[in-house]
Design goal:
The chain is α/β, with parallel strands linked by helices. The chain has helices at residues 3-18, 58-72, 117-129, 168-180, 205-208, 237-248, 265-270, 298-314, 330-334, 336-345, 350-367, 396-403, 413-416, 438-442, 453-456, 474-481, 484-493, 501-510, 512-517; strands spanning 35-46, 50-52, 85-90, 101-105, 109-114, 138-148, 154-160, 185-189, 191-192, 195-196, 212-213, 217-218, 225-226, 231-232, 253-260, 319-323, 371-375, 388-391, 408-410, 459-464. The strands form five sheets. It has an eight-stranded parallel β-barrel, surrounded by five helices. Strands 1-6-4-5-3-2 form a six-stranded mixed beta sheet. A two-stranded antiparallel sheet has the order 9-10. Helix 4 runs parallel beside helix 6 and helix 8 (298-314) runs parallel beside helix 11. The structure holds acetamide (ACM).
Length: 529
């Protein structure tokens, strides 16, 4: 062995050590990269570090520049006499997967190359996770060689802003938390029985009336207590556009959910003419499922078409979520109009009527070149031709849809509902029920074993849901989502055979100072063990 070979031997050894499972817990990286090699030495980030970017990466350039200025008081320079430099660039020879990137570094150069802009952004997030929070002006970053790419294309988080309303400052913080963990879909639940939260200019009563309720359940549902405090709020279209721009610059697609035909009481309080009984009603004050739903009349379809068209004007997302879950058929079964319609259209039961309803809405969405998503109830009575199914009542809906060749997002209550308890109920704040520990989330695999590889390819990824019946404050949202979202982020990014819970937990513990620095109110139950 020559001297030259000898000198690279320790590097090769380190490389071999860090390429198997995610077994390098000394770096606080979540999700852990596909391939990582640590080399001895540092790149010193300081006020003399040069940072230039091509025009197409202006957004990523300004993101990192302002992050370092705001968090570490480091002013990167466009021109500098020093040799110390950061480069970001697109490299189409990298794996052709959106989000794939690589990092190479030595003492003078830190280079992030990526297949696309989102990959550059993810490389930046990786670097940010390596920065010690207490350092300003000068930071030594360990030298790393990374090759990384996401396993799944749908790495989602949902937030229910109907049951409780969260202001735009918090929504931006929520988006930042997603970005930090390389999540790329924000499913924004904007309408439900207890509040309509999106301004629709054609139907102003939706927010004038539908965004306010006269009371809210206190304690658990089983206690059936309701206070009499007026509660409400909504997002103007200007605010929504601002949120979309904020998310887009962080490579997060914002997908609106406009619930139909059920979970519609807030809309029906504003416009009772679109229910079957047409009787005046009130915005919901208790949790659960309401029997008063949209009636499938021509007038209702006209109303919902106008709403969806306005929504699609605002949201550039490829996907539009129409809910479709938990639709009691009581009113439809009582309605002579519905019975007549079913006869005319040859629909054999109310499930087929629901399918007829959803398929009409899908046409509106497809007409704009967009794709409709619904909860797995949209399978009942026949799935709309181009629908994506979000599987929440376990995985069976997702499995059925994938076998039919429909794209699926897995979000089963068992592993992905972050409104469930994460520790012993007697030690945790009141929650809806269930038990979804951090370890359980981490154990999730979005492709069920009973799907063969061709059906399995229809699984787009997975999503964590934050329903807010029992979550009144943004602090509590953070507590319920973190660190479970971090676990899910690794589930949807890293190959299953590289995941180990103990190792993830070690890396998560290393992130604690950063989580405090970001003022995230995370649950520490698993971290203090
Ligand atoms: C749901 O949790 N009702 C989709």
């Amino acid at each position: 062995m020559s001297f030259k070979q000898l000198s690279i031997f320790p590097i090769l050894l380190l490389c071999l050590l860090s390429m198997g499972k995610a077994d390098n817990p000394s770096l606080p990286l979540i999700p852990f990269p596909k391939e990582l090699m640590v080399i001895s030495g540092h790149f010193n980030l300081n006020n003399g570090t040069k940072f230039l970017a091509p025009k197409e990466l202006k957004n990523e350039h300004s993101y990192l520049t302002s992050y370092l200025k705001n968090n570490h008081q480091i002013d990167l320079q466009l021109k500098s006499k020093k040799r110390n430099e950061i480069i970001i660039k697109i490299n189409k020879s990298l794996p052709s997967i959106p989000g794939s990137y690589q990092i190479t570094s030595d003492a003078n150069l830190l280079k992030i190359e990526a297949y696309d802009e989102s990959g550059v952004f993810y490389g930046i997030q990786t670097i940010i996770q390596l920065l010690p929070v207490n350092k300003i002006h000068q930071i030594d970053i360990p030298l790393v060689q990374i090759k990384d790419q996401p396993k799944f294309q749908w790495r989602g988080m949902h937030l229910d802003c109907s049951r409780h309303f969260f202001n735009t400052t918090f929504i931006k913080k929520y988006i930042d938390m997603l970005a930090f963990y390389k999540m790329n879909k924000f499913h924004w639940h904007l309408t439900d029985d207890q509040g309509w939260r999106i301004e629709i200019k054609k139907y102003p009563k939706l927010t004038e009336i539908g965004s306010w309720r006269n009371g809210t359940m206190v304690g658990h549902y089983r206690e059936q207590k309701i206070d009499s405090i007026k509660y409400g709020g909504f997002y103007t279209q200007t605010e929504i556009k601002e949120i979309i721009a904020y998310a887009t610059s962080r490579h997060i697609e914002v997908i609106p959910e406009i619930e139909m035909p059920g979970h519609a009481l807030a809309a029906l309080a504003a416009y009772p003419e679109f229910s079957c009984n047409k009787l005046p009603t009130q915005v919901g004050t208790r949790w659960g499922v309401e029997t008063n739903v949209f009636c499938p009349t021509a007038e209702t379809f006209h109303f919902l078409t106008a709403i969806l068209n306005e929504v699609m004007e605002i949201f550039p997302s490829k996907y539009i979520h129409i809910g479709g879950d938990e639709v009691p058929k009581d009113e439809w079964n009582k309605s002579s109009f519905c019975q007549q319609l079913m006869k005319e259209k040859g629909l054999k039961d109310a499930n087929e009527l629901q399918s007829y309803f959803i398929q009409r809405m899908e046409q509106v969405i497809n007409k704009r070149g967009k794709i409709m998503i619904g909860w797995d109830e949209i399978l009942e009575g026949g799935l709309a031709p181009n629908a994506v199914v979000m599987s929440w009542r376990g995985e069976s809906g997702g499995i059925a849809a994938a076998k039919m060749g429909h794209p699926v997002v897995m979000s089963p209550g068992s592993h992905c509902y972050f409104d469930h308890y994460q520790g012993l109920p007697e030690k945790e704040p009141l929650a809806i029920g269930g038990f979804t520990s951090l370890e359980k989330v981490y154990s999730y695999h979005p492709i069920p074993p009973d799907l063969d590889s061709s059906s399995g390819s229809f699984i787009l990824g997975a999503q964590g849901n934050v329903w807010t019946e029992y979550i009144k404050t943004s602090d509590q949202v953070e507590y319920m989502m973190m660190p479970r979202m971090a676990a899910l982020a690794e589930v949807v990014w890293l190959a299953k055979d590289k995941q180990t819970y103990a190792n993830f937990l070690n890396r998560l513990k290393l992130q604690i100072p950063l989580l405090h620095h970001k003022k995230i109110n995370f649950c520490q139950t698993e971290l203090s063990k």
